[in-house]
């Protein structure tokens, strides 16, 4: 057992330091973590675009050359409205078996588990046999990472280059029939946002027939977006997910999703976004003036595309749903999806650890519909295999997902202790073995 009391007290301290972004103001939290790591023997640097918002890089080097394992987290949080909470969001209260506060799950809990675990090992004299252990705690994730992961990988790539990375975005439990699924975050969908423009002829709104209203030409496009959705297109990771839960037969994703629904409908909103392109109209614009028939109008659509697919898949989905005519298409934002292999030394080590500590569970590969800093590291370091994993043992994602960015965010101390044990086992097991063969969990 390693440093479990340490992770609880460290988490409470981190929650009490307000790092709501914007503005972030992460420096006091980073200084606390740097002092903790330095005291245990880590070489630490605070590197930031501005003094108020430094990123923390802590390194523990081995005697022999070898791969670098990086434990990545972010220290900023989203805001919280105390009126909606039953414990003050920056209290760090320990009550009813939970640590309460903004960031307990996203993601100061993981930071605390990682730092407490590695400090316990390092202060006992443990060092990597080969390679290096990196603890990287970035700022500014919640607004995209311009001062955090993006700045750090662009400005100081050699200080954070790594072959293996563990970050947020996985480790949660899904109950599924009589089974327990443990999610291994393997990738993130891409973003292919676009606008659909319509055109007409401007006129005074008091004499509508003199004009040609571009706004009403959006109506059929919106109706199709409401009524239809693109057909599923199974890529590697969701295929493996559906196979692991026994839902896939004959490669039919629709039928598989219906089997998932029949077993536990709570999984559908989690599983369906993995299965293909999604289209969600979110903005509309036409005339600025109430008395002018608009000659131009547009809707903007948030489109997410699984890793392995690109703009062609987005275009095919658009044409399938809204047809090819009656609009002009403009691409407005393009980020290709990214992923790491279902099987790799790190992913397989994690599977082995779960098999030992949660024998009835099945590790399933998942793709996030949204974004984490893992995408920045995968892009900066193509050799980097990155996974989202902070294992839980007690609370399921049906309980924790609504708390992330929501009211009464809290973590069960048993889950925090379980994660702390995992991170201690991971760094010891993964960096102690002979080169090329990480030690199996023991
Ligand atoms: Zn987060």
Keywords:
442 residues, alpha+beta, 4-stranded mixed β-sheet, 25% strand, globular, binds zinc ion
What is the helical fraction, as a range of percent? Answer: 25-40%
Parts with pLDDT < 50 across at least 5 consecutive residues: none
Number of strands: 19
What value does the average pLDDT take? 95
For the termini, the CA-CA separation is 13 Å
Count of DSSP H/I helices: 14
Small-molecule binders here are:
zinc ion
Shape: globular
Beta content:
25-35%
Q: What value does the Rg take, in angstroms?
A: 24 Å
Report the major sheet: 6 strands, mixed
Q: What order do the strands of the largest sheet run in, or round the barrel if closed?
A: 1-2-6-3-7-18
Structural class given helices, strands, pairing?
alpha+beta
SSE blueprint and pairings:
Elements (H helix, E strand, L loop, with lengths): L3 H13 L10 H14 L2 E5 L7 E7 L2 E11 L19 E2 L2 E3 L7 H16 L6 E9 L10 H7 L1 H4 L3 E4 L5 E4 L2 E10 L1 E10 L3 E2 L13 H10 L8 H9 L8 H11 L4 H4 L6 E8 L6 E2 L2 E10 L5 H12 L5 E8 L2 E2 L5 H13 L3 E8 L5 H7 L4 E4 L8 H4 L9 E3 H20 L10
Parallel strand pairs: 3-6, 3-7, 7-18, 9-17
Antiparallel strand pairs: 1-2, 2-6, 4-5, 5-19, 8-9, 9-16, 10-14, 10-15, 11-13, 12-14
The structure holds zinc ion.
